């Protein structure tokens, strides 16, 4: 007998809904999960993020080429994969490419050559990479047979590099910088906000004045000034962590103020006084007794702060002040789309903006769902 059949029998015998009864005995975590599952957009956003981070983590495998590999001609338009020909359904294939000269602009134009067909094969060998930075491999999800023809799902850029591969491999940088930056902001915000609210006095005054000074500085000019100060000779890893620290510089201020306000309210509660009498040290009181009292807010704050970090990195890189080649991020890719003429002639170079929009929307959906789920007055029926 399945669990559902057993529940139906109990409901028939006792005349009550067991699902409703379970609500009264559920833990806080179970109630939050129950509310979250009812938020359709939040579930959709969570699924989008799971797919996004999976693609980012294993991006060298999903992408047919390396991010810096010159795979074909410049500005090749996106190719279409065909599944049918004049004989009906067939194995997937792409047409060949041929270059012609536009008689009006005298520019080289790449067009499909319908006389040449190349099969698209799966699990093909290509450029070597390290999966998760640990395991060497040269197997890619798809590619053309025998390397005779390149497959460009989203076209190529000004150096003949595959845009689809670069977007996937840029996701590992853009999506991780949000997590690292928010982690640093979270640690600083909870620690300094907790110290400020718990101790008060001169400590509170000093921390609050520092917060007011940082928040009074315009964000974009501050980021631009600090990013411009990053030495040009630094290697990509140092630049990555420098940009992460810059993005975290102001991110902790808002969280610290909220944490301070909550601790000012809770520090005189009976259970806090009892912990002091029992000899618990101040750090343990803050981290074990006070901060867990509004964990739901902290979780929601983290979720909604990550998109801000991603947008911050994208903005700086778009302006040429963030990450620099050979590092590839969505902002670095969009840097090529600053020229209106380039975008008008080669609109597929704007596809990284769609990746940014979808990621930010997904985080916002999840944040809204967590905020509603963490509301103690929400309906859980």
Tell me the layout of helices and strands.
Elements: H1 3-14, H2 18-25, H3 28-38, H4 40-57, H5 59-62, E1 82-85, E2 88-101, E3 108-131, E4 135-144, H6 163-199, H7 201-216, H8 219-228, H9 236-266, H10 270-277, H11 282-290, H12 295-318, H13 330-335, H14 340-345, H15 351-373
Antiparallel strand pairs: 1-2, 2-3, 3-4
Helix pairs in contact: 3-15, 4-6, 4-15, 6-7, 6-9, 6-12, 7-9, 8-9, 9-12, 10-11, 12-15
Descriptive overview:
This protein has 15 helices and four strands. The protein is an alpha+beta fold. The protein has two domains: 87 residues, no CATH class; 207 residues, MetI-like (MetI-like fold, Orthogonal Bundle). The protein has a four-stranded antiparallel sheet with strand order 1-2-3-4. Helix 6 packs parallel to helix 9. The radius of gyration is 27 Å and the shape is elongated. The model has no long low-confidence stretch (mean pLDDT 79).
| Helix-strand topology string | HHHHHEEEEHHHHHHHHHH
CATH class of the largest domain: Mainly Alpha
Q: Percent helix among the residues? A: 55-70%
Please, what is the CATH homologous superfamily of the largest domain? MetI-like
Q: Can you list the strand order of the major beta sheet?
A: 1-2-3-4
**Coarse morphology:** elongated
Kindly identify the CATH topology of the largest domain.
Answer: MetI-like fold
Number of domains: 2
